[in-house]
Specification:
By secondary structure, the protein is α+β, with helices and mostly antiparallel strands. It folds into two domains: about 70-105 and about 140-305 and about 355-475, Outer membrane efflux proteins (OEP); about 110-140 and about 310-340. The protein is built from twelve helices and six strands. The strands form two sheets. A four-stranded antiparallel β-sheet has the order 1-2-3-4, with no helix packed on it. The protein has a two-stranded antiparallel ribbon with strand order 5-6.
């Protein structure tokens, strides 16, 4: 076989072996590409959540007093895990600030090593154990450490604003859930009243049909309306159950059986004629802290262009051997030095850091303006919604009153036989529809109020969270 033939054969053998190697690779990756939540939970040590609540706890919750709006908010913020997460992150950021401030203090190191070292003449060797100690103190660095401290402290302020933002978010979500649960609670009561009223009409129709004062069609028409009213009641109860489940999630346990009346006295204290102070909004405070972080980052980047002056002291002693510095057995050696160090060239990294920090500072300024703009826009929008809902409430109240008078008149006329049952049934439906519309607008008004409270940053004052402690954090105005 010629060398050329041998080379071709070797190439064919190599090509033939490639598919086998390609088939073996996925086998090695198969375990990492398998997703098993149960096995992953065991490996991570995830705690198993309880499947159901103890019946006694459920009964105790249902027997408690009606749930007040402010009480629900305080319960939610006292246990919500997202707030605990933000507070834990704040502790982490505070630790980072302590690390940055450590740059002002001396760095002390102790060590011990063993080895072999030849002196320059090769006549004597340092060997054995060597104990060493060193101290380094930064004397002047043109603002590197102070800039890092400012940056870390600005990050702490930013996280504080995030904690406030999370508290406000949970408070607003809970308030919205309470209003929604109260809405369906009121609508369920109205739907039950409608069922009762239509059942009375059915009873009257049956008595009139038995006595021969009306035809058998009247009870049939009334039965149809009764079934429709019952179906509406079931639908509202389903929505009420969903809203209660949402409220229970925020409260961390079952909600009480009833939601108390919404606090009209607190609502009257809301001022819509004064522009909100946007400087106290968590979104604005977060953006302002971002600007401080970027400004400190810019100071650090500029300081990197200048040298750092430090004092370095070191000492070592041979332990049972020859000191490589003095070439004496059990010898002791020490040095005291002033060091001036500077990065001369880093491939343009310092200039890039300056440009990046400058752009970050400008972006943070734009976020401040955007947060103020959004807050003002939302506040004006909710204020107009409140005004519109209040105007509609007056009209709906008058409509409900007039329909109630017409219903009473139709009821008397049907009893006397001068009015058809359809007129009476339509009147019953109209009056309960008017009541439902009035309740819907009333709760729309409350949702707009809550939105205005959240947009203007008044939630902590409105729900009584100021001057209280939330998950270990003291909230002050």
């Amino acid at each position: 076989m010629t060398p050329r033939t041998k080379l071709c054969a070797a190439a064919l053998v190599a090509l033939a072996g490639l598919p086998a190697a390609a088939q073996d690779a996925p086998v090695e990756l198969k375990a990492s590409r398998r997703l098993a939540p149960s096995a992953l939970a065991r490996e991570l040590g995830a705690a198993r959540a309880t499947a159901a609540m103890h019946p006694s706890t459920q009964a105790a919750a249902e027997d408690s007093k009606p749930l007040e709006l402010a009480d629900a908010v305080r319960r939610a913020v006292a246990r919500h895990p997202s707030i605990a997460d933000a507070i834990a992150t704040l502790a982490q950021q505070s630790g980072g600030a302590d690390v940055a401030r450590a740059g002002y203090y001396p760095q002390v190191k102790l060590g011990m090593g063993a080895g072999l070292n030849n002196n320059s003449g090769g006549a004597r060797r340092g060997n054995g154990m060597l104990a060493s100690a060193s101290l380094s103190q930064m004397l002047y660095d043109f603002g590197k450490v102070s800039g890092a401290v400012d940056q870390s402290e600005a990050q702490v302020r930013r996280q504080q604003a995030i904690v406030l933002r999370q508290i406000d978010a949970v408070a607003q979500q809970t308030a919205e859930a309470v209003v929604r649960a109260h809405r369906y609670q009121s609508l369920a009561a109205i739907a039950q009243e409608q069922v009762n009223a239509v059942e009375k009409v059915l009873e009257t129709a049956r008595l009139r049909a038995k006595s021969g004062l009306s035809t058998g069609a009247d009870p049939l028409q009334a039965e149809s309306r009764v079934e429709s009213a019952r179906a509406n009641l079931l639908q509202v109860k389903s929505l009420l159950a969903q809203s209660r489940e949402r409220l229970a999630t925020l409260l961390g346990g079952p909600a009480p059986a009833l939601v108390a009346a919404l606090p009209q006295q607190l609502a009257s204290e809301l001022r819509f004629d004064q522009p909100p102070d946007t400087s106290l909004l968590p979104e604005v405070l977060t953006a302002e802290a971002d600007r401080r972080v970027a400004a400190a980052q810019l100071d650090v980047a500029k300081a990197q262009r200048y040298p750092t002056l430090s004092l370095d002291v070191s000492a070592n002693k041979a332990m049972g051997g020859v000191n490589p510095g003095t070439l004496e057995r059990n010898g002791f050696n020490h040095t005291v030095m002033f060091n001036l160090s500077s990065a001369i060239y880093q491939g343009g990294a310092m200039d890039a850091q300056v440009r990046s920090a400058t752009a970050a500072e400008e972006a943070a300024r734009m976020r401040i303006d955007a947060a103020r703009l959004n807050a003002g826009d939302q506040a004006r929008s909710f204020r107009e919604q409140v005004a519109g809902a209040q105007a509609r409430l007056g009209v709906l109240a008058e409509r409900r009153r007039s329909i109630a008078e017409a219903r009473d008149l139709y009821r008397e006329q049907y009893t006397l036989g001068t009015r058809s049952i359809l007129d009476l049934l339509n009147a019953e439906q109209e009056i309960h529809q008017a009541a439902a519309d009035q309740e819907a607008v009333l709760h729309d008004l409350w949702e707009s109020r809550i939105g205005y409270i959240g947009a203007t940053g008044q939630g902590r004052a409105f729900y009584g969270l100021d001057n209280t402690t939330v998950q270990g954090m003291e909230l002050l105005p």
